[in-house]
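[job 0417] fold request received: HECT domain-containing protein
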Amino acid sequence: MFSWGEEGHRGFRLKQGSGGVNSDSGPPTDVGGHRLNLGYHIADLSAGRSALAFVKSNGNAFVIRTSESKDGRRVRGKQKFVKCKEKIQAVGCHDDDDVVTLLSEGGKVLCVDTTRAYNLKPLEALCNIQVSQVACGSQHSVALTKGGQVYTWGRDSRGQLGQGRSEPGAGSPQHIRSLSALPLVQVAAGGEQSFGLSVSGGVFGWGGNDRGQLGLGDTTDRHAPTPVHCLNMKTTIHISCGKDHTAILTKNGAVFTFGSGQYGQLGHNSFGDELRPRLVAELWGAKVTEIACGRHHTLVLTDSKRVYSFGCGEQGQLGHGEESHPSVVLPVQLPQDTDDAQIRNIFAGGNCSFATCASIEDVGEETNADGVNNKTQHRLDDMIDKWTSECDSKQWKKIKQEIHMTFSSASCLNTSFLEQRKDKHFQTSPKYSGLTLSVARLAFEKLVKNDNVFAEVEAAVLLLLPSLEKKPVGVEGLRIYLLLNELLHVIQSHEQRRTSTTLAEAVAAAVLNLSADSLQVIGDWWSSLPPSTMVEHVNVWKQALSVMLSSESVPHNSGVRNLLLVLQYMYNVNSRTAEPQRMPETDFCLLIDKNFLIMDLQLWILRSQLKYMDAEPLILCSFPILMDLGSKKFVFDLNARYTKVKEMNCMYWETFWAWQWALPLPQDLLFELDLRRASVLGDTFEQLAAVSAAADPADPADPNEYKLPLAVYFDENFTNVDDQYLYRKDFFHEVFHEMMSAESGMFMFNDSKTLAWFPSKATEEDQRYFQFGVLCGLALYNQYIIHLPFPLALFKKLLSVKPSLGDMIEFSPCVGESLLNILEVCEDDVIKNLYMDFVINWDGTDVDLDPKNPEKPLTGENKKEFVDAYVTHAFNTSVEGVFQEFKRGFFQVCDQDLVKLFRPKELQEVLLGKDFHDWAKLKQNTGYEGVYNTTPPHPTIQMFWEVFDELTEDQKKAFLWFVTGFERVPILGMETIKMTVKVKGVGDLSYDKYYPQTHTCYSILELPLYSTKEIMQSKLTEALSNNRRIYK
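[job 0417] inference complete; emitting structure tokens
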């Protein structure tokens, strides 16, 4: 071993016959290192002001007491053996304390007071906890357990115990809870600062920071662990601390230092402090494998086995000989006769330095720093094969302990299943988890197959979850949530475990206990996974929820609600995800039993009527994301039926009492519209206005007459109930086609005349827009498809969703694409040369989008403001009054809470239906009656399909309307579009004179037995071209 610095070569018992220090050694203060012939290898060494301790490779520990002589020099005594039943693996000395700390190979922490007899005293608080590392500062200690937990004790003058509060100190070890989830692999201490290092290179510091020794960019002490963000993704693998400076080593051999530079100990060729980590540039090009800090100096060992030093050299601790450039990185001058040995490890403490040697063949590739990660990293995937193999009861007892230690420790789990390829897990950040979930899945599949192992795993995780922190100090502490989602997925893949929701409920509760920042990180990690994995993770919560909702008595407890909230959060994250990665919204929908929906609706109705009710619906109105379109429409239509019955009942009793006990007539319980076919729209507006005029102005819900069953009569033709479906369908078809025509003058149209919008010149005094809203509400309420060629922006606004540039592109592609080019394509100088300002022309009127700044020019800096203002004016500002009237009319009929179940696109499709083009499906679904019901098909039927196939697309759509009464088909009824064909009965059997007839209520086509294809084609196309259907 080589030693240099204060009393560097004294105190060690040398190999007999060596003559003490080699003959090449000189005075310790004016030459470099000295070779000590010890005759044994030193495994660990630590030096403080009052003591030096070391461990032989055989596990024997020794302490050398250091005292002050009469002339003020520090003088070492002789080494003394510390008797211990267990082998010792590590030692630690305080810089300002007489106590030496030892760590046994069994993980026990032992203390020796060097001022008294060298008797070992175990640290009682850690007796039952296995410790893997101990680090000592001036007067405090830090311990890392094999379970990844950190304990501190000693003086706490500057927050070096990391307990989050200022206290004098702690005589017994205190757990730092805020670090409990982090996968730590090293702890370090020096002076009054402490550090923890995670498996993926995260550095966390706390304690004294008056010289910037925590690397946080300031000089404020920290009483709780704080991440050193400057070192993120620097692949840190080792930390060493001096009295008030710190050094870190990276995986690629770079060294960063920070803190006090008073003695040049930072190696930056200056004596200034560094508040943030700074690369030691003079070591660039040399791969450093090990670092060590003394009180005010720093040592580094390179892969070429050369030792360099910098900092305070007053006691010869730099080993530079007579050279004196303390702030410059210079090699330590070691004896030249070392050809048979190479430097193995370096140690620094107080004012002295050491380098251990080994024969060239004994020097392994792995360094001390590299070994920290490899030794400490708890590789769960490597242990599972042992757990799941055959074993006896004694072995099983040990396995149970291992399972418990692993799965009840977030730190252990967060250290597992890392992406090792190219050390990618060192890139862990709020956007990347550093995990390989595919490996985790394979490991969990092995666990789940073994019932005994799985039972222990589940019990350990359930014990762990309540103790997890709301906001771990570092993002690595959040890996466990992705791993648990993967574990739940594997559990649910096994049929016998699918019905258990205990673990899923507990995980959901833990997720929802996290802070908003932590949830943001988990969301970003999850949304970066492959889409197939995202879907699988969503299905975990859907499966658990399905189990709970399928029970006879669905629990309305926090367990169910937590599962719902987790799904809602995942949905929100998915909504923010970029399009290629985003899951379809339908992937969040559950197959919900109709009986459950009925009960949920009943709860909603009761709660809406009695505001004080404790019970509330589980899903309805709170979690519509879980409802598919069929469930939403079922609930809406069911409520409409209930409302009609309720309003009829109310109307019955109102009429009964108003007419002095006279029974009301059936028509008194209906909302009737008696119209003339020649003026459907005018009559409709007139009768709706009469209803509004009779309403109670003090009651916003009045008139409730709209919510009664709708009855429509044309030209005083009071039809029976069976014909009402056809009349209502006719009514909605005709009134909306007339209203949406240019002749009505109610709307403006885009350049292609395909889409309408509210005119900017209309005012809310025009009652037609309120009545327009009522008519749209009546169509939805009574389940009729209408002709409503409005952009999606209309339905967004109804649901309080802000219209976007995409809506402008839909309504006016020319304007929308121009705005998009300004926003995304045009360079700033191009925009400047356009000489545009914030004045636009909309609906034939010039509008200043920023009236407070007239003629404000368009620039590259305000282009987004311009585009947003353009879209806002078109869809909001210019039409606010008339739209509010439309909205008021719409929700006069429909319940706003239930309408909001729908997404904008869904609401549009429910009201407008969808285009039908699957004519082969129509042919496949067609049935035949009477003489047409033959196999093979009747000649007239064959003739009919030949004629049909030759129709144009528009004629086929006209045929669909002719037979079914639909121009577009119900969004949920596309698969049910059917037609029945039968012979049209005629008295004179002159079939060729007659047109086809239809019964649209039942989609029946009465087709005469035409004699030729040409006659059939003529009669059918003529019938389709008529403005009115031929109906009975």
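[job 0417] notes: The chain is about 35% helix and 20% strand. Residues 220 and 837 are 51 Å apart (CA to CA).
[job 0417] exit 0
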